[in-house]
Write a structure and sequence with these properties.
single chain; mainly alpha; two-stranded antiparallel sheet; 14 helices; disordered N terminus
Length: about 325
């Protein structure tokens, strides 16, 4: 029997890492499989035409909210610090991003900052280009970049990549409540579906369509930025990686598909750099700026864009966008 004054031996770092890796793999497996099963169930139900306008309205609404949470909150504000906002605005977008079930906010940001540090080189957690030549290796690379990397998780050092967020009490608390946000992201649509149709059937269908199917669609849209947008598309800027602009992915992801632009100007709040490059997340940030809910919005000037296009070199460092560089009405 252990003496009351004996201090128990702490697990070794390797054991902690192994335990964390197993837990991360199990969570990732559930994250991939459960929405997929929901999507398949929805396809089967479509044969019976059991989807109504309420289900579709809630699906579009929660898809839009959560993909903005990922793009505006997780990506542009927290990862790249492309703009600043008050605590309420920051919390809302971080919670909406968490409802997308792509991992806790600090994990997401750390992984993405690591991606930019080693983009399409050894150390990139989800590059499609590190698996050799040939069709089979190309398929392996595509699968790895799209979903496979989550099922073979690597530990990314938070102390190195996200020291700012570890000191942010608000974001740290949101990170710890990750599973609560996922649960609310499923429960709120179900509650609204039940109230709007005044039926249990309406609640269940809303849970399916605006919950599981919505998560499935958001997942594969944002994961396609890692896979498709590092394989196929236009490359107006000669970055040190294979990032590409893809019009269709930009539409579905609310602007994240202008991925070559983003890797050229990583701290820019706008990814659509030309008038026809639709960037809904950028429009939202612009609207927040107009009403005073966002400030220090970083955007490259026309001269910076032209210089980067001509030089054939990576467009700019983070410090070059430390101040707003374009005067906007």
């Amino acid at each position: 029997m252990q003496n009351a004054t004996t201090v128990p031996e702490l697990p070794k770092a390797g054991a902690l890492n192994a335990r964390a890796t197993r837990f991360a793999r199990r969570v990732a497996l559930l994250t991939v499989i459960l929405p997929l099963l929901g999507f398949l169930a929805a396809i089967i139900l479509l044969w019976r035409r059991t989807v109504g306008p309420v289900d579709l309205l809630l699906l579009v609404t929660f898809y839009s909210l959560t993909i903005l949470g990922v793009g505006v909150g997780f990506h542009r504000q927290l990862t790249h610090r492309a703009f600043q906002s008050n605590k309420v605005t920051k919390a809302i977008f971080a919670i909406l991003g968490s409802m997308a079930a792509e991992g806790p906010v600090i994990f997401w940001v750390a992984t993405h900052r690591r991606h930019h540090s080693f983009s399409d080189r050894e150390g990139d957690p989800h590059s499609p280009h590190l698996h050799g030549e040939g069709v089979m290796n190309w398929l392996r690379g595509f699968w790895h970049s799209h979903s496979g990397w989550m099922l073979a998780p690597e530990m990314t050092g938070w102390a190195y990549y996200v020291p700012d967020l570890l000191q942010d009490k608000l974001i740290f608390r949101i990170n710890r409540l990750y599973f609560l946000w996922i649960s609310l992201g499923l429960a709120i649509p179900a509650l609204l579906g039940g109230l709007l149709t005044w039926s249990w059937k309406g609640a269940l269908l809303a849970f399916l369509w605006a919950g599981l199917v919505r998560i499935f669609l958001v997942h594969h849209t944002t994961w396609s930025i890692n896979s498709i947008c590092h394989i196929y598309g236009r490359r107006p800027f000669q970055n040190r990686d294979q990032s590409a602009n893809n019009f269709w992915m930009a539409l579905l992801s609310f602007g994240e598909g202008w991925h070559n632009n983003h890797h050229a100007f990583p701290t820019s709040a706008w990814h659509g750099l030309k008038w026809w490059e639709i960037d809904i997340s950028g429009y939202v940030i612009r609207a927040l700026e107009k009403v005073g809910l966002a400030w220090n919005v970083k955007v490259p000037s026309a001269a910076m864009i032209a210089k980067a296009s001509r030089s054939g070199q990576p467009a700019m460092s983070a410090t070059e966008l430390s101040e707003r560089s374009e005067n906007r009405a």
